[in-house]
Automatic annotation (TrEMBL):
Subcellular localization: Cell membrane
Keywords noted in UniProt: Cell membrane, Membrane, Transmembrane, Transmembrane helix, Transport
UniProt keyword tRNA processing present: no
Pfam families with a match to the protein in the record: Xan_ur_permease
The organism of origin for this protein: Ectopseudomonas composti
Protein name: Xanthine permease
Family, similarity comment: Belongs to the nucleobase:cation symporter-2 (NCS2) (TC 2.A.40) family.
TM spans (from-to): 32-51, 57-74, 86-105, 111-133, 140-164, 176-194, 206-225, 245-264, 327-345, 351-373, 385-407, 413-436
GO cellular component assignments: plasma membrane
GO molecular function: xanthine transmembrane transporter activity
Domain of life: Bacteria
Annotated region (Disordered), positions in chain: 485-512
Length: 512
């Protein structure tokens, strides 16, 4: 039936608002700037771990920008069964960095095809389990995800330290005061901009500090940009530039853990942004978003990129700005694709002095760990074994970081999985959570020494019964005249009166 002038228009979802080309571009660019430091950090880390040349690292960066842009377009605009159509920026995930470094191991550039193969296979597995993932999310509560995210940040700190020292351990200036001083200057710049800058400057503090640190490095002759113009200015990412993907079972199993963590994180981001903008997110929409994540992660390695996931900092930006339009974020995706077609930008970023990256990395990686700690703060530690789960899992994850040779005499497949601190912590957290919180048969009914103490609390009428001058000495309560005030035992229900001399005084706070 045709609508009449008095007919109420269909309710528009808040994310479907289109602000126009200029506003979409301005807000979209802000999204790109907010996540730019994070999206280029992963290919930088992996490229340097593999010993790639600046040109190849530039290609990794360009591929990550290109793949992230396409993933963002898929997530925001959507296709049948793929994309949650919410303002979520996608990009290469930090969750897999330590695992990919462990897979690369001593193979250097030869390990890149193994990494790419493991990402493809693990993402396919993730795509297949997406329909049932919502049924098993109870096995990945904040207790588990908090442990994993915290471990991700902690395992990356040695990378930041190595960068701050210069990156190349065989270089003559590795660990020199010049390198460490440059890293310290960059770190100080991040902190200063975060403290005194406006909200927009604070959000861009890491990127701005890297620019300022690089300019200082140029002034002191510590930067080399000779390779920036050595290749094409504009080019499509070359498929399979690093060779055909190689599939190894142990590497795939390690990456499956990363993919599961990514699914959990993306689920949280989708639900969070839905709540922020005030739109409905049902299981179908959640599934579409997770499938978009996995299909993007499957195809990204063909261009030389890695697992894709939603960027949490951009979810925060949506909350701060109040701009709910998915078309704004789709525009950000177009900007990322465009940057990915400019390999010169990748080479420019690859030329940033490693010490500058080290200074920024302290904050960048520390923020990841802090996010995990914030998640762990939501966990209830009273009258359960969650404290020992956290302690054991994080401790287990730190073993390969503190002693990289710990698993050298184990079978190769075992070493590949557990040489990653993230895999170690995740496996232990999942198993212990199942053991103590799901398979409760056999749990002792006696309180363990590892159970966090019950929070201290006082009853209001207990406080009201105190008088001016009351004070404790050696566990006994005395009034202002020094008379002991009898205390009632917990199992003594007969109240004991205070001495008559003190009964008429007004109530007041206790002094010690």
């Amino acid at each position: 039936m045709a609508s009449t002038p008095n007919s109420a228009p269909a309710t528009q979802r808040p994310e479907d608002e289109n602000l126009g080309i200029s506003a979409n571009f301005a807000y979209g660019l802000q999204h790109v700037l907010t996540m730019y430091g994070g999206i280029v950090a992963v290919p930088l880390i992996i490229g340097q771990a593999a010993g790639l040349s600046s040109a190849d690292i530039g290609l990794l960066i360009a591929a990550s920008l290109f793949a992230g842009g396409l993933a963002t377009l898929l997530q925001t605009l959507g296709l049948p069964f793929f994309g949650c159509q919410l303002p979520l920026v996608q990009g290469v995930s930090f969750a897999g960095v330590a695992t990919m470094i462990a897979i690369i191991g001593s193979d250097g550039a030869g390990g890149i095809p193994v990494v790419l193969g493991s990402v493809i296979a693990a993402s396919l597995i993730g795509l297949l389990i997406t329909p049932v993932f919502s049924r098993i999310t109870k096995f990945f509560p904040p207790l588990v995800t908090g442990i994993v995210i915290t471990t991700i940040g902690l395992t990356l700190m040695p990378v930041a330290a190595r960068w701050a020292m210069g990156g190349n351990s065989s270089a003559a200036d590795f660990g020199s005061m010049a390198n460490i001083g440059l890293a310290a200057f960059t770190l100080a710049t991040v902190l200063l901009l975060s403290k005194v800058g406006s909200a927009s400057i604070s959000r861009l503090s890491i990127l701005l500090a890297m620019i300022i640190g690089t300019l200082v490095a140029v002034a002191f002759g510590m930067a080399d940009f000779s390779q920036v113009l050595s290749g094409p200015l504009l080019a499509m990412p070359e498929p399979l530039h690093f060779g055909m993907p190689v599939f190894k079972v142990a590497a795939i199993l390690s990456m499956v853990i990363v993919v599961i963590v990514t699914l959990v994180e993306t689920s949280a981001d989708i639900l969070a942004v839905g709540e922020i903008i005030g739109t409905k997110v049902d299981s179908k929409r959640l599934g579409n978003g997770l499938r978009a994540d996995m299909i993007s992660s499957m195809f990204a390695p063909l261009f030389g990129s890695f697992t894709q996931s939603a960027f949490a900092q951009n979810v925060g930006l949506v909350a701060v700005t109040g701009v709910k339009s998915r078309y704004v974020v789709a525009t950000a995706g177009l900007i990322l694709v465009t940057l990915g077609l400019l390999p010169v930008m990748g080479r420019l970023i690859a030329a940033v002095p490693t010490a500058v990256l080290g200074g920024a990395g302290v904050v960048l990686f520390g923020t990841v760990a802090a996010s995990g700690i914030r998640t762990l703060a939501k966990v209830d530690y009273r009258n359960n074994m969650n404290l020992i789960i956290v302690a054991t899992s994080i401790g287990f994850g730190m073993i390969p970081i503190a002693m990289p040779s710990f698993y050298h005499h184990f079978p190769a497949w075992f070493e590949t999985i557990f040489h990653s601190g993230i895999s170690s912590a995740a496996i232990m957290a999942i198993l212990l959570n199942l053991l103590f919180n799901h398979f409760t048969a056999g749990n002792s009914d006696q309180q363990s020494v590892f159970v966090a103490g019950t929070e201290r609390s006082l009853r209001y009428h207990d406080i009201a019964a105190l008088h001016e001058g009351d004070h404790f000495v050696d566990g006994k309560l005395y009034d202002a005249q020094g008379n002991e005030v009898p205390l009632q035992d917990e199992d003594d229900h007969a109240p004991r009166a205070r001495p008559a001399a003190t009964a008429s005084r007004p109530s007041a706070k206790v002094t010690s």
